[in-house]
Amino acid sequence: MTTPTIGEPSAALRAVLQLYPARYRRERGEEMAAVFADTTAEAGRSALAREVFDLAAYGLRVRLGLTGGSVPGRVLALAAPMVAGALAGSGLVPWVSDPDHASWRLTWDHSYTTYALTIAPPVLALLLGMAALLGRWTAVRVVAVLQAAFGLSVLAQAFTGPAFFDWWWAGYVGSATLPSALSAVLLLAAPTDLLPRPGWRTRGLVLASVVGGGLLVALQRWDDTSFPLDVQWFAVLLLAPLLLTFTALRGRVAPAAVGVAVLSLTTFASLFNIWREARGLSQLLPVALPVLVLLVLAAMGMQRIGRGGGEGGDTGAGRSVA
Question: In 3-state terms, what secondary structure has residue 276?
Answer without folding.
Answer: helix
